[in-house]
Structures are given as structure tokens and as C-alpha cells.
Design goal:
It contains 29 helices and 20 strands. The chain has about 725 residues and is of the alpha+beta class. The chain has 5 domains: about 190 residues, Orthogonal Bundle (Hypothetical protein af1432), CATH 1.10.3210.10; about 140 residues, Beta Polymerase, domain 2 (2-Layer Sandwich), CATH 3.30.460; about 70 residues, no CATH class; about 60 residues, no CATH class; about 80 residues, Alpha-Beta Plaits (2-Layer Sandwich). Strands 1, 2, 3, 4, 5 and 6 form a 6-stranded mixed sheet that branches. The relative contact order is 0.04. One of its GO terms (biological process) is guanosine tetraphosphate metabolic process. InterPro entries: ACT-like_dom_sf (IPR045865), ACT_dom (IPR002912), Beta-grasp_dom_sf (IPR012675), HD/PDEase_dom (IPR003607), HD_domain (IPR006674), NT_sf (IPR043519), RelA/Spo_fam (IPR004811), RelA/SpoT_AH_RIS (IPR045600).
Length: about 725
């Protein structure tokens, strides 16, 4: 380096030192300044021949770490001195004994802890067996002074801020380690701003394209976000002013990392993340009345915007172990969008920004200040050592359980709906309107597509996707739990059965004519009795769905010509005739139990303790020596089984075997052409009583192969579908697996 460059660098080092003293969050005494000066001079001397990968003098790194410790975390002179010295023992000729002689036992202990952590990290780099999890545990147990962890977090933050000069593979390693170890530690200690910055910087190196894409989109949407915050603020401003409150309202964008995590976990796009920012209301108030003012502001906000009942976080009555205090509420803002509102006094805001160290500012006298510092460090040590959920989290869970029998959910427009616990999107759809329920095609919960069987939770926002062609099927009764939804579904299924019965009646008339049999009341009665049914409507319905086909009718005709059957038939004529032809009922014959979601037919025995009968609500219990035993849902032993042997319980239900659905797989091959998949799916959609479960097509060199899983009631329906598929242009072969 030239002499001019060295002079310039020395000037910059001196400027940085002065800035460190100026930005220190706490008031520094003369002794404090002397301690920091000695640490600074020692660090400059120790690192004088060292340079960072970027080429700058190494001393800029310890100064930067000390500045983070002083201003962003608000620690004392001891911590600032330790931060300046944190690499001295590891990287230079100074020993820990020399540090103790010069700076005292506390600084030496902190520097020693930081040196040990660096050695551990180097070991971790070389020794793959020392996993990140073990390293994290050692971090927590290695030291007696939590300031070691805090300075290490500050050290990691500055390393992350200046990582551009490193090799890409090293960047990814350090960023991943930061996400796994240091960001959670910062969160635990209450350094929320630092935690957020660590997460964002980590994402910048682990997923650079994703990071830059979200950053660009946040910048592009800033104008829209500002306009939304203005609209939100305008609604409550007059009410706040009327109470003569001094306050500021500002929008705080969500961190890039938290947006990315939401996109990933909920499988949604950037535009579908509605809570991309929080609104923060910071008010003036002395300690005596700040709690009262917080709840007053809460009341004003919820007068104008409907709150999500389970998203209230009262960190004022029960501050976090880190000292964090605030009221968090999530409300349904304009345009049916969720907005998180954070209500804090100026004091609480400082604690949120700086960590619990901000309490110093509000304590009088050096002695009181020192006591507060000690309390805080002890609290943090406990928080780090106790990996279990804290008491406040426990209370939050307990509060939710109090209201377990009822949940509150929201429409896309933000209207509140109350439903029983265990409700599904189908229950929600029918609670809005019967027509919406009957035409439900799918549902989104919190912008993510979910099955109709998905159990809703309080605070969910549900959007129902409807289609004119959608209609209830018998499985819906397994998904719906409210009386309203179930009765509407049953009613719709009955109507559909009547329609199918009407079609079946016409089909039966044609088929009897082909068999040279009369279509009259007497013949219908014979058929009803022959097929062991209850009403003529049952008969027509089963013909309509293909359960009674040509083969069955031919067997009936053959049986009539049998002399024995003729004799038996004379007896039948004296028996009571079948019920009225026009009776509007299709009876369920509960004659079979099926198990599991796939509704498999398995061997079972009925339990003697509760003696279930056809039609009862039941469950299967896998015994050790007697296979599956079927019990009633309200069996006296049910609670014991469900609590002690949940893994041995299998879902079960009685069904009418004539209406059971079966799964079939159809294989197709043919010549690939435009629109072929569309034609195939249209053909399946047109087929009555066929539900498509899954579809998979693969194409190579102009030839395609396909596999379709369908749900049908019987073979004849499947055979008809296969015949129709064979007629599609381009299809070469269709077979059942």
C-alpha cells in the first residue's frame, strides 16, 4: 500500500472509533471510555498485519462488531471491549492470561468463550461428524456468560453483511449455518431486527434468484402497499385523534425470508401472500398509563376492523422472556385482506428494536442500571437453557382449548362465520348458501387448495370454488359434519337417485320388452321380490346405475320358466305384494362393512361388548389374536381404545353393497395428437356414475401411454366407459389393469 493509502486508512479507523463512542446506546462514563480505548488500541496493534478477503484492514471487522453490540443491541462497555477483542487471542500472539491482566476477569471470560466457539467451528468445518445440531447444543452449554452468544451473533451479522468476497460454496455453507443456528438464537434472545437481517442475508446466498425476485416485487409493490396503509390509516385516524393520542402509524414490510417461507410452506405465489406487511402504531405514554392506552387503541382498531379471534397476542400483560412487550392483532382490513397491527408504546418499541437492554434507559442510577443488566442476562441464560415452550406459549394454547367446541372462520370478503369444531370446507359452503354448497368443486383455505375433508381451524379464511356441473356424491357425507350440510347433501342425493330411477324405469321397460315380458305392476312386484328389494324405486335405481343388467334379467327370465320356481311363485302371489310403485324412497341395505379411506372389504368380527347392528356408526379395532373387531363409536370401551391404542384403530362404516364404489385402473396407448387428453377427460366426465381419481400421460416420439384411475359402481359401467374410450380417434388400445 502507498503511504497516502495508509494515512487514509488510519483516518478512517479513527473516524470509526469516534463513531463507536458516539452511537453507543448507553451513557458511557470516563472509566467506560478508558476501557474501550484500551481495547481498541490493543485490537489495532494485534491485527495490524491482517487483512480481510476483501482487502481492507482486519481491524474494521472488530470495530463493526463492537458498533452492532453498542448501538443495535445496547450492551455495556464490558461487552463493547470484548467485541473489539473477540478475535485477538485466536488470531494473534496475545494469550487469555494477558487479556485478563489488562481488562479483568469478565472481559477475559467473554473473549475466552468466543475463542472456544471459533475453535469449535473450525473443528466442525474439518470433522463432518460434529453436526450442526451438536454445535448448537455446545454453544448453549459452553459458557456461563450469555454475552458470549450475543457478541457471536453480532460477529456473524457483520460476516454476513460482508460476504461478497468469499467463494460461492463458502457463502452457501455460512448462510445455511446462520439460518440453522444464529437466526433462531437471535430470536430467542429478543434481537428481532438482527434475526430478520440474518434470515434475509442467508436467503440472499442460499437462494439468490428467489431473493432477488422477491426483493424486486416488494419494490414494485411499494406504491400499492403505501396506498393500502393510507386507506387503512384513514379509517382509524379520526378516532385516535378524538382521544387526543400522540402516535405514529407506519407500515413495516415483512422480511424477504418470511415471505419466501410462506410461499414455500403454503405453496402459493408472491401475489397470494396477503400479509406482506404489518401496520405498527407507536404511541407516547408514560409507564403508568401505557397499558391502558394500548388497550384503548386496540378497542379503536377493532371497532373499525373485525379481528381474527385467535390471532390476539397480548405481550403486554405477559411480556416475553426476552422483555418484548406489545399487543399484536390481526384484523380484516379493506378489500378483505388480513393486516397484522402491532400496538407499542415508544418504550416498548425501543425494547423491540434493541432487545431487553433498552430497559436501561428507563432505570435511574448506575446501581439500578447494573442490577437490570444482571437480571436481563440471567433471564436470557434461562431462556437459552430451557428449550421447552415457555409459560406464555402454554397459556396461549390453553386459551385456544377453552373455545375448542366452536371455531371462527372468515369469508374472502372478511365476514366472520361460526362453525362447530371439526367443520370442513363443505360445512362452510352450505353455511353460506345451499346453492354454493351443492355446486362446490373445491376449496382454498388461506389461499391454498385443500381437500373437501380438510378440518378447518379458527382464523382460517376460506374461498369456495364452484362449478355449474359440480354436484354432491355419497362421499360428501363423510366430509360434512354440520346437520345443515348433511341434510342438504342427503336431499340432493335422493333427488339424483330419483332421476336415475326414472331413467332406470325406461331402460327396464325396453329390456323386458326384449325378453318378451310385460312391463306391468305384477311383473315389477316379481322383480322386486326376486332381487330382494323393498320398493319399485329401488329396482329402477339399480337398473339405472347398471347394478341390475341384461345378465341378471336373463337369469330372472330363466328362473320363471323353472317348474320349481313356478310353484314357489304361486306361494309368493299369496305373500304381501311389494310396496307402492311410486313410493318416493330408495332404501339402504346396510349389509357390508368397509374399512379405511379406500373402503376395503376385510374379514372382521362384531364385538360382544356393544353388539353393533347394520347402520350403526362403527370403528374397527385390530386385536392381537382375533383380527379386526368392529365396535360402535359410543361403545363403553371406545375412549380407552382411542386413548391407549390409537394406532390400532381403523376407520369403518356400514354400506349398502349394491351402491359400493370400486377403484379401477385403465391403461391406454395410441398416437399422440393435439387435444387427445381433453377428449379423454371429457368422455370420462360425460359418463354417469364415474369419478376420475387420477390421470397420468406420457408421450415419446409421437406415441403416448396413459393411466387413469376411476371410481365406478360396477363392471358394466366400466365396460361401457372402455368401449367409449376405444372410439376416440388416435386411441389404439384400452385395457383394464
Amino acid at each position: 500500500m502507498t503511504e497516502a493509502a495508509i494515512v487514509k486508512e488510519n483516518k478512517e479507523i479513527a473516524r470509526q472509533y469516534k463513531e463507536l463512542l458516539r452511537i453507543s446506546y448507553r451513557t458511557l462514563t470516563k472509566e467506560d471510555k478508558n476501557l474501550i480505548r484500551l481495547a481498541f488500541d490493543t485490537s489495532v496493534e494485534a491485527h495490524k498485519d491482517q487483512r480481510r478477503k476483501s482487502g481492507e484492514a482486519y481491524i474494521f471487522h472488530p470495530i463493526a462488531v463492537a458498533k452492532i453490540v453498542a448501538s443495535e443491541i445496547g450492551l455495556d462497555a464490558t461487552s463493547i471491549a470484548a467485541a473489539l477483542l473477540h478475535d485477538v487471542v485466536e488470531d494473534t500472539t496475545y494469550s487469555i492470561e494477558e487479556i485478563e491482566k489488562m481488562f479483568g476477569k469478565t472481559v477475559a471470560l467473554i473473549v475466552d468463550g468466543l475463542t472456544k466457539i471459533s475453535h469449535l467451528q473450525q473443528q466442525q468445518d474439518k470433522d463432518v461428524s460434529l453436526q450442526a445440531e451438536n454445535f448448537r447444543k455446545m454453544l448453549l452449554t459452553l459458557n456461563d456468560d450469555v454475552r458470549v452468544i450475543i457478541i457471536k451473533i453480532a460477529d456473524r451479522l457483520h460476516n454476513m453483511q460482508t460476504m461478497d468476497a468469499m467463494k460461492p460454496d463458502k457463502q452457501v455453507k455460512i448462510a445455511s449455518e446462520t439460518l440453522y443456528i444464529y437466526a433462531p438464537l437471535a430470536h430467542r434472545i429478543g434481537l428481532y431486527s438482527i434475526k430478520t437481517e440474518l434470515e434475509d442475508l442467508s436467503l440472499k446466498y442460499t437462494e439468490p434468484e428467489v431473493y432477488n425476485d422477491i426483493l424486486t416485487k416488494i419494490r414494485e409493490s411499494k406504491q400499492e402497499q403505501d396506498a393500502y396503509i393510507d386507506a387503512f390509516t384513514k379509517v382509524i385516524k379520526d378516532s385516535l385523534d378524538q382521544e387526543q393520542l400522540e402516535y405514529t402509524i407506519k407500515g413495516r414490510p415483512k422480511s424477504i425470508y418470511s415471505i419466501w417461507r410462506k410461499i414455500k410452506t403454503q405453496n402459493i405465489t408472491f401475489d397470494e401472500v396477503f400479509d406482506k406487511f404489518a401496520v405498527r402504531i407507536i404511541y407516547k405514554g408514560d409507564i403508568a398509563n401505557e397499558k391502558f392506552l394500548a388497550w384503548k387503541i386496540y378497542s379503536i382498531v377493532t371497532d373499525h376492523f373485525r379481528p381474527n379471534p385467535i390471532r390476539l397476542r397480548d405481550w403486554i400483560s405477559s411480556p416475553k422472556s426476552t422483555g418484548y412487550e406489545a399487543l399484536h392483532i390481526t384484523v380484516m382490513g379493506p378489500k378483505g385482506r388480513w393486516v397484522e397491527v402491532q400496538i407499542r408504546s415508544e418504550r416498548m418499541n425501543e425494547i423491540a428494536e434493541k432487545g431487553y437492554a433498552a430497559h436501561y434507559k428507563y432505570k435511574q442510577g448506575a446501581e439500578q442500571e447494573e442490577k437490570t443488566m444482571e437480571e436481563w442476562l440471567n433471564r436470557l441464560q434461562e431462556a437459552l437453557e430451557n428449550s421447552e415452550a415457555n409459560a406464555v406459549d402454554f397459556v396461549e394454547q390453553f386459551k385456544l382449548n377453552l373455545y375448542a367446541k366452536e371455531i371462527f372462520v372468515f369469508t374472502p370478503q372478511g365476514d366472520l362465520k361460526s362453525l362447530p369444531k371439526g367443520a370442513t370446507p363443505l360445512d362452510f359452503a352450505f353455511s353460506i348458501h345451499t346453492a354454493i354448497g351443492l355446486h362446490t368443486r373445491g376449496a382454498k383455505v388461506n389461499n391454498k387448495l385443500v381437500p373437501l375433508s380438510h378440518e378447518l381451524k379458527s382464523g382460517d379464511q376460506i374461498e369456495i370454488i364452484t362449478s355449474e356441473n359440480a354436484k354432491p356424491n355419497v362421499n360428501w357425507l363423510d366430509y360434512a359434519s354440520t346437520a345443515r350440510a348433511r341434510s342438504k347433501i342427503k336431499s340432493s342425493l335422493r333427488e339424483e337417485k330419483k332421476e336415475l330411477a326414472e331413467e332406470g324405469k325406461a331402460v327396464l321397460a325396453r329390456k323386458l320388452k326384449a325378453q318378451k315380458l310385460s312391463f306391468n305392476e305384477s311383473m315389477i312386484n316379481e322383480l322386486v321380490i326376486y332381487f330382494k328389494l323393498k320398493t319399485s324405486l329401488d329396482l329402477f335405481y339399480r337398473v339405472g346405475i347398471g347394478k341390475i343388467d341384461n345378465k341378471n334379467l336373463k337369469e330372472f327370465t330363466a328362473s320363471r320358466s323353472n317348474a320349481f320356481v313356478s310353484y314357489f311363485k304361486n306361494k309368493i302371489r299369496k305373500a304381501p305384494v311389494a310396496e307402492d310403485l311410486n313410493k318416493e324412497e330408495i332404501t339402504h341395505k346396510y349389509d357390508q362393512i368397509v374399512f379405511g379411506k379406500e373402503e376395503e372389504v376385510l374379514d372382521y368380527k362384531l364385538a360382544n361388548c356393544c353388539n353393533p347392528i347394520p347402520g350403526d356408526r362403527v370403528f374397527g379395532f385390530i386385536t392381537v389374536s382375533e383380527g379386526i373387531k368392529v365396535h360402535k363409536k359410543d361403545c363403553p370401551n371406545a375412549i380407552q381404545f382411542q386413548s391407549n391404542y390409537a394406532y390400532r384403530i381403523i376407520q369403518a362404516k356400514w354400506i349398502d353393497s349394491t351402491q359400493q364404489d370400486f377403484k379401477a385402473i385403465i391403461n391406454l396407448t395410441g398416437i399422440d395428437n393435439l387435444g387427445l387428453v381433453s377428449e379423454i377427460t371429457q368422455e370420462i366426465s360425460k359418463s354417469m356414475n364415474v369419478n376420475m381419481r387420477s390421470i397420468n400421460f406420457d408421450s415419446a416420439d409421437g406415441v403416448f401411454t396413459g393411466k387413469i384411475t376411476v371410481i365406478v359402481k360396477n363392471n358394466s359401467i366400466l365396460d361401457t366407459l372402455i368401449e367409449h374410450l376405444k372410439k376416440i380417434s388416435g386411441i389404439d388400445k384400452v385395457s383394464r389393469e
